[in-house]
Prior knowledge:
It is built from 11 helices and 12 strands. It is α/β, with parallel strands linked by helices. It comes from Pontibacterium sinense.
Amino acid sequence: xxxxxxxxxxxxxxxxxxxxxxxxxxxxxxxxxxxxxxxxxxxxxxxxxxxxxxxxxxxxxxxxxxxxxxxxxxxxxxxxxxxxxxxxxxxxxxxxxxxxxxxxxxxxxxxxxxxxxxxxxxxxxxxxxxxxxxxxxxxxxxxxxxxxxxxxxxxxxxxxxxxxxxxxxxxxxxxxxxxxxxxxxxxxxxxxxxxxxxxxxxxxxxxxxxxxxxxxxxxxxxxxxxxxxxxxxxxxxxxxxxxxxxxxxxxxxxxxxxxxxxxxxxxxxxxxxxxxxxxxxxxxxxxxxxxxxxxxxxxxxxxx
Length: 304
């Protein structure tokens, strides 16, 4: 048996071969392929050389298939159909998909963006699953490892930024949350009054101090930090039952205080923080994935 060198075989020759074997005529094959008859004849000769077989043989009635070509024809049809499927763009049907959308997001981003996404999944893709990971870690580690499709974050990747794609979702100013019975609940919040209070801060990634404390240092001021909390849901309990004040992005404040004896209000004007930008990130490996493109369209609809 000859040991074929596939690198020397032009894929286009297989397309010509299939037409030749099906119509069993060089001129008719050239017409169907929209090629000149001499070009198809030259292709046939190359194919004969490659296969070591005449493939088409003359008979009294014209051309017929060689024994090798008879065996080759059904396999060639299957091969070219398989190649078409490989090259063709994948189809994605949300209604029938059973895919799992894997997202890394911590408490803040989960509350702000993922309930709406889940509602859309239930409406348009009832058999899909949403898998949310929130363990304390770098927002981009799981993206880099390919363990999640998306990361929701107000941070930016520190390295290898060319491998990540990004979609802006929202920006939000910081506000402060407190009990509706807090002494400052119904008064204007001056910087001095704010700093006289007892403060907690949320450190989802176990990092600190908070951005407010960095800013206060530029004013040569400090606040009384009495507790560090793991998420904004637990912060709501602390604020509701004590005189604690906790700062949080305005985008989630209405949801966090809903149904609770809590309010939120603007920070003192002296604390002039830049708004936090929240972005959807994904790795280049998933940029063209049909399912991921569809999920990104759901996120994009939230920003309109």
